[in-house]
Amino acid sequence: MKLHHLIYRALPVAALYLLTSIVLTALRQHEMVSAETSVRLMGMMMGAVVLVTANVIPKRLVPLARLSCAPSREQTLRRFAAWTMVLGGLGFTLAYALAPIAIASMLAMCLLAPAAIVVVGIQARCAWMRRGATLGGK
Length: 138
Hints:
The model has no long low-confidence stretch (mean pLDDT about 85). It is elongated, with a radius of gyration of 19 Å. The protein contains 4 helices and no strands. Helices cover about 85% and strands about 0% of the residues. It has helices spanning about 1-30, 35-55, 70-100, 100-135. The chain folds into 2 domains: about 1-35; about 40-135.
């Protein structure tokens, strides 16, 4: 079943987040790492996950019955969505890496949110078109 495959891929990422936060907390308690460094590293990790996930979007195969439009158009939309999320994730990562910590989280969200909104809009449009084609074909 597909769900198990997705869960097995997500579990190591979740474990990595938990392990990293535990290690950073221990290092911070021993005053080996500052709180700012801890926040920056966790933020950069989140941005890296967005980058990796966005890189996978156009490479995943979807059964032809689930496509919302012509396969070539679907692939073009997937690539556009992936590039949008890669740029948003890169902005998110760089905001945590380079911006002053006081504004890093707000800046990161302001760079990632428009990318996410564009991708959700693309998906909604494809779902709407597929629904219209299904209802029109009846």
